[in-house]
């Protein structure tokens, strides 16, 4: 048998590497499942040192994403002063970002750097969670944009239109809609978990052309259009309000100064969430932008980079909160020092910030 392999390699390739490759496959040392010689995938051939370094960096990003978003979740849920409509929407986004760091980032690292040892069903479940979490995140961003649009463009109607109960219902409907959409998006994978895998030890996602087009419209074109239109309107109104405040800053009464402070707070919140959305689009657009060229992006060589760029946004969001929201910095201090364990800490007025 060995003589036949050597003759075949010499005749067709004339290379010693061919013999090594065939012999390695024969003894199963380079297979994910050596006992499944005819149906097992080959182990990824990656440079060991580069792979270890890359995995350490990516796992650190994943850990930072989990920790920072967990701080946001604890802060908003613990302190009652933070139970506002806008913060509930931020909480929804933080939950999706937390799940990205906890589940999606490690899963993507495992899929691309080693064999998939968890079976076809787990692969399909992971693919479903990717669609669910990403869709929920997109829905949260749209709700945040609409919240700021009403707050800036229709401030007199904000308290009646954007109530806490309505926001909570909207968030629930957002995640419920994402769940049903993900069932449609991953229906083939859920019905036949191994349909996209060519061998054991592989976890790939393959979608049909029609499904890819629908996903492109619902998860990219429609959300981006809504977000851009709403924030263009917010930007125009915010600029006009800022100019009006500057021109009347020396002529306001005490009562008007309270209104002025409120407007400044709303404008600052709009700017902060504007930065949040701009960063989101920067990380979000390359993946779906490339899908305009290749619908099934996951089958391309750029898939891992584009996916991780999209996931990296979940790490950047808490950093934006820390830079622009003083209450978040104060909340972190109270959480890290375990002052939230004290009785009555949930009633603390976290919004009162002492300037340093």
TrEMBL record:
Gene Ontology cellular component annotations, sorted alphabetically: plasma membrane
PROSITE patterns with a match to the protein in the record: G_PROTEIN_RECEP_F1_1, G_PROTEIN_RECEP_F1_2
G-protein coupled receptors family 1 profile domain residues: 68-321
Entry annotated with the keyword Ribonucleoprotein: no
Record keywords, A-Z: Cell membrane, G-protein coupled receptor, Membrane, Receptor, Transducer, Transmembrane, Transmembrane helix
Primary location: membrane
CDD domains in the record: 7tmA_TAARs
GO MF term set: trace-amine receptor activity
Membrane topology, record value: Multi-pass membrane protein
Subcellular location: Cell membrane
One Pfam entry name: 7tm_1
Domain of life: Eukaryota
Keyword Lipid biosynthesis: no
Transmembrane segment boundaries: 52-76, 88-105, 125-146, 167-186, 206-236, 273-290, 302-324
PANTHER family in alphabetical order: HISTAMINE RECEPTOR-RELATED G-PROTEIN COUPLED RECEPTOR, TRACE AMINE ASSOCIATED RECEPTOR 19P-RELATED
Family to which this protein belongs: Belongs to the G-protein coupled receptor 1 family.
UniProt protein name: Trace amine-associated receptor 13c-like
Organism whose genome encodes this protein: Kryptolebias marmoratus
């Amino acid at each position: 048998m060995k003589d036949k392999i050597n003759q075949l390699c010499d005749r067709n390739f004339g290379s010693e590497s061919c013999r090594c490759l065939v012999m390695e496959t024969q003894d199963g040392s380079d297979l994910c499942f050596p006992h499944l010689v005819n149906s097992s995938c080959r182990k990824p051939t990656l440079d060991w040192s580069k792979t270890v370094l890359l995995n350490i960096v990516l796992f650190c990003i994943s850990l930072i994403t989990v920790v920072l978003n967990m701080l946001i979740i604890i802060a908003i849920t613990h302190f009652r002063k933070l139970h506002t409509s806008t913060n509930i929407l931020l909480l929804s986004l933080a939950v999706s970002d937390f799940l990205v760091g906890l589940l999606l980032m490690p899963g993507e690292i495992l899929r691309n750097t080693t064999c998939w040892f968890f079976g076809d069903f787990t692969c399909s479940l992971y693919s479903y969670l990717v669609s669910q979490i990403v869709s929920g995140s997109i829905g949260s961003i749209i709700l945040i944009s609409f919240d700021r649009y009403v707050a800036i463009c229709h401030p007199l109607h904000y308290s009646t239109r954007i109530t806490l109960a309505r926001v909570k219902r909207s968030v629930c409907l957002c995640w419920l809609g994402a769940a049903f959409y993900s069932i449609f998006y991953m229906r083939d994978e859920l019905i036949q978990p191994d349909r996209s895998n060519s061998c054991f030890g592989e976890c790939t996602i393959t979608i049909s052309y029609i499904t890819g087009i629908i996903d492109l419209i619902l998860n990219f074109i429609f959300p981006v259009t809504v977000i851009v239109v709403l924030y263009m309107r917010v930007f125009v109104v915010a600029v006009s309000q800022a100019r009006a405040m500057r021109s009347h800053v020396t002529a306001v009464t005490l009562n008007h100064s309270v209104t002025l402070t409120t407007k400044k707070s709303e404008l600052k919140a709009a700017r902060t969430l504007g930065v949040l959305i701009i960063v989101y689009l920067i990380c979000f657009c390359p993946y779906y932008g490339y899908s305009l060229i290749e619908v099934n992006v996951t089958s391309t060589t750029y898939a891992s980079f584009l996916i991780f760029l999209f996931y990296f946004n979940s790490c950047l969001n808490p950093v934006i909160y820390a830079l622009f929201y003083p209450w978040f910095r104060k909340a972190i201090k109270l959480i890290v020092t375990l002052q939230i364990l004290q009785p009555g800490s949930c009633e603390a007025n976290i919004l009162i910030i002492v300037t340093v």
